[in-house]
Amino acid sequence: MHTPELRLLKDQERRLVAGHAWIYSNEVNTQATPLKAFKPGQAVQIIGHSGRWLGHGYVNPHSLICARLVSRDQAQPLSPSLWVRRIRTALELRERLYPAPFYRLIFGESDGMPGLVVDRYGDLLAVQFGTAGMELARADILAALEQVLRPKVIILRNDTSARELEGLPSGVETVLGEAPEALELTEHGARFLVSPLTGQKTGWFYDQAENRARLPRFGATRRVLDVCSYVGAWGVQAAVRGAERVVCVDTSEAALERVAENAERNGVFERMSALHGDAFDALRQLREQGERFDLVILDPPAFIKRRKDETEGTQAYGRLNRLGLEVLEPGGLLVTSSCSFHMARDSFLRTVQGAARRAGRTLQLLEAGQQGPDHPVSPAIPETAYLKTFTFRALGEM
């Protein structure tokens, strides 16, 4: 069957030739190939202005990113065999890196499957189809996952904001087996109950696992504050490693209930407490109460989801870090993160430094982390490098 062409304007193939996978609607030669002629998710051949064949991909005329390149091999169009090959390649990396099958298996563009995320929880797969192209290939991709991994349960977590931008419906469903209300995973010796069916994202944030693993190298801390704690991945592990008191802050009562369960599961319940509420309000409350901590962890959701949010989001990161520093003992540690791609690493560093000056603190950067290797970064696609996690020592004025 003939695959239609999507032709680009002059000088618009440079990013693709360099390895990127996205095509914006203003880069398409709509005189030669009108976008309105395509159906959302339709497979296309991507052709440069001079007629150069660039790759196989898919199109969505209703999205700003109107097409994504998937295959640079002219003999390998979008097909069931391509999905099987890509999944096997991704699995080879994860099996090399991880002793147990708990990780992000497919990380979109970095694994050659733009618009697809798959998190693995043993025999359960949590799958997110984020684009019209992946949605159209849904049946073939699910069949490929079953062929390669033989899972017992597959959940579709199609409740992401990305689907709205693609004009796709939102929802959660189980398409294979029976999804448990919760399951257990082990990270760095600590045990956690997570809920792939109802939890945030797919139930767990695998991307911070490598950064959480580095907590012990900075020594034991007595009093720990875990802000935006979710189910306690940071806080519970701090308690397991010897912290005498851990306070977890989150806006979700359900998440804090799971923190308590996870604390009980690891024998540290008596050393943990929860504070329900907005992160900014909770930090102000703790400051006014004179509370002080040896370790403050700030792991908020993305404050900058779109470029137009950059000014407001940068201000929010600044306020959060200033408040965190104001409840941190001199000489204490600040672990602070941004998962906003539009907050560049250097900009985030400057923002935290600015917050420190306003708080009257001097910072020493001890370590800079990123997402774990199950979220590999494509050097040609900067958008795949989104997580920044800094560990600082915060002194008084010097």
Briefly say what this structure is.
With about 400 residues, the chain is an alpha/beta fold.
* Full CATH superfamily name of the largest domain: Vaccinia Virus protein VP39
Global structural class: alpha/beta
Write the CATH architecture name of the largest domain. 3-Layer(aba) Sandwich
- Overall average pLDDT: 96
Per CATH, what is the topology of the largest domain? Rossmann fold
Radius of gyration over all CA atoms, rounded: 23 Å
The overall strand count is 19
Please specify the SSE layout and strand pairing:
Blueprint: E1 5-7, H1 14-18, E2 22-24, E3 43-47, E4 53-59, E5 65-71, H2 80-97, E6 102-107, E7 116-121, E8 124-129, H3 132-136, H4 138-149, E9 153-158, H5 161-165, E10 171-176, E11 183-187, E12 190-194, H6 209-213, E13 223-227, H7 233-240, E14 245-250, H8 253-265, E15 272-276, H9 279-288, E16 293-298, H10 310-326, E17 328-338, H11 345-358, E18 362-369, E19 388-395
Parallel strand pairs: 1-3, 8-9, 13-14, 13-16, 14-15, 16-17
Antiparallel strand pairs: 2-5, 3-4, 4-5, 6-7, 7-8, 9-10, 11-12, 17-19, 18-19
